[in-house]
Amino acid sequence: MSSERTYHHGDLRRAILTAALDVIATEGPAALSLRDLARRAGVSHAAPAHHFKDRTGLLTAVAAEGYALFADALAGAPDLRERGVAYVRFATTHPAHFQVMFQPDLHRADDPDLLAARARATEALRSGVVDLPSAGRGEDDRLTGVAAWSLAHGFATLLLTGNLADAMAGRDPEEAFRSLASSVFAPEGRQGS
């Protein structure tokens, strides 16, 4: 009876993902153990394998969920600068997802859910570059996209790792990023000289 009750946990997949996100946020992805997550969820040590197979499967699910949430966050942004703000906001509100998403050695690159979610997020980022006025784009849209991604990802990473504490000095990260982005990319409607 006890093993049946343990197996019918409710939403075990979600419980394991939530516990994994907590561990990643506080200790990093290297600290993940399926056995520990099972203990935290109050299930047998083998139960997580029913949903994720192994640690890499779990991290792949975290990355896929992260990219899906990320794509949703970017979708509502009206322009490239605001997509960058959404990028920073996503990183600060989903730091565990953010850590795993951009470490491809942690997950299965060929996972269909991961590929679909990443493609949605990539398209949302690229559409922001296409919408820039030609004066703010440069000669190559792909390189402009890399520059925008580098700015947002670098800022978010530095923010999350505490490397901007002095520079931010109580400033709102989103407003600080808007200022940075405006100095690098021509705002909508402004013509280059």
Question: Main traits of this protein?
Answer:
mainly alpha; 193 residues
What's the rounded overall pLDDT mean? Answer: 87
End-to-end separation in angstroms reads 76 Å
Order of helices and strands: HHHHHHHHHHHH
Low-confidence stretches: 1-8, 188-193
How many DSSP E strands?
A: 0
Computed over alpha carbons, the radius of gyration is 19 Å
The biggest beta sheet is recorded as: none
What is shown here, in short?
By secondary structure, this protein is mainly alpha-helical.
Q: What does this 3D model show about the protein?
A:
This protein has twelve helices and no strands. Helix content is 71%, strand content 0%. Residues 1-8 and 188-193 have low confidence and may be disordered. The termini are far apart. The longest helix is centred in the middle third of the chain and has 21 residues, at 55-75. Helix 6 (80-93) packs across helix 7 (95-101) and helix 10 (141-160) runs antiparallel to helix 12. By secondary structure, it is mainly α. It has helices spanning 2-7, 12-27, 34-41, 47-52, 55-75, 80-93, 95-101, 112-130, 134-137, 141-160, 165-168, 173-184. The radius of gyration is 19 Å and the shape is globular.
